[in-house]
């Protein structure tokens, strides 16, 4: 699955139908607290003025082929919501806190609503954007919705969720699960879907006591990455054409980094060194950064065998920092990147709120950039993702820095980069990502000379990088 902005997606013309999820009975209080991520997301939003409560949804799309059975699709969506407790759950504000409630599966219903007929995909996307922005308010349940652009044969199904409800991994699971539920409902057969597990049980376990030693060790890892108190924020070292920290509208672009063969070559290079593929990506980014010490944050999932098919926000952020030896030799940087990942991974089950409570660092008050990596080839329906036009879709929003999602699919390696919508940032990011792709190619054994900066050589990369010492915590 590739990630693109909703504004760049074309579902084609057709009739737009939205399925709203409703409840036929009252919810019941539930003991599971909000997860660390949910608490941070929901309380930060509640502290903002209404005008500043920008949408924070993620969406997914897939094409369903053949003559549509709308009754079966409604059944599939209802079954999907009933299977996952996080989709039947919400919060009430109580005394400065959040109290969770839960609906029983039998209380879930779906109601289709006609949202108009559109003669172009652009028109349909404009309407979908407004629907998603309105329906994903985390202060209301449900903070998600489903919609489809119907054609004479088939449809494009879309689903959007506020980030408090789900992570990107869950969206990929949802695409495969809903496709199976729809096929089963159409054929009158029981669906072949795994146990959904329980995100609420995960939240309860996460809230349990974590030893002070583990929290202290995780906090120390974060402090080591952040550096001294006067260190700059953790961000991609490119000129954005605006003051650091200022919120501005963001734009998003997708960039090809390598075809499937190129990604395979990089993986073989990493494995020969006993390193993981993620470490290879981090090493390539570090070599592009010009920094003597590379720092970033990587989101990692916290699932186990019980929750591998669950919807929810199973993510923790890990601090990554390693020195970059002088020169352009890939292997020494790869070894340090891999060591940094292996050092950070034991801390992934320590909730972020417990770690941050022990940290008092100025950098935590400034926006940080991060690198997300997902290999979508391991998902059950990945072989059909390309034919079904399965995508992760992002919303328009404001921010202060650069974030990067790298996706690996059967077609290759792609980067979705979100950055401030300035001419300077656009040029800087495109040059930086071009260099990133060149290092990946060289590391994979491509003997073509590196071409940094859209064909204008290494000097172009140097021109868009901020001074190294500004980003060097040593």
Salient structural properties:
474 residues, alpha+beta, Chloramphenicol Acetyltransferase, 2 domains, 7-stranded mixed sheet, 5-stranded mixed sheet, 25% strand, globular
Give an account of the 3D structure.
It is a single chain. This protein is α+β, with helices and mostly antiparallel strands and 474 residues long. It has two domains: 2-203, 2-Layer Sandwich (Chloramphenicol Acetyltransferase); 211-471, Nonribosomal peptide synthetase, condensation domain (Chloramphenicol Acetyltransferase, 2-Layer Sandwich). The protein has helices spanning 36-46, 70-83, 121-135, 168-187, 199-207, 212-226, 260-272, 277-289, 330-344, 352-356, 423-443, 458-464; strands at residues 2-5, 14-23, 28-29, 57-64, 89-94, 97-102, 108-118, 144-150, 155-162, 248-259, 293-301, 315-323, 371-375, 391-394, 398-399, 403-409, 412-420. Strands 1-14-4-9-8-2-7 form a seven-stranded mixed beta sheet, with helices on both faces. A five-stranded mixed beta sheet has the order 13-16-17-10-15. Strands 3-6-5 form a three-stranded antiparallel beta sheet, with no helix packed on it. The longest helix is centred in the C-terminal third of the chain and has 21 residues, at 423-443. The radius of gyration is 22 Å and the shape is globular. The chain starts with a strand and ends in a 10-residue tail after the last helix. GO terms for molecular function: ligase activity; phosphopantetheine binding. Residues 23-36 have a biased composition (Low complexity). Residues 23-48 are annotated as: Disordered. InterPro entries: CAT-like_dom_sf, Condensation_dom.
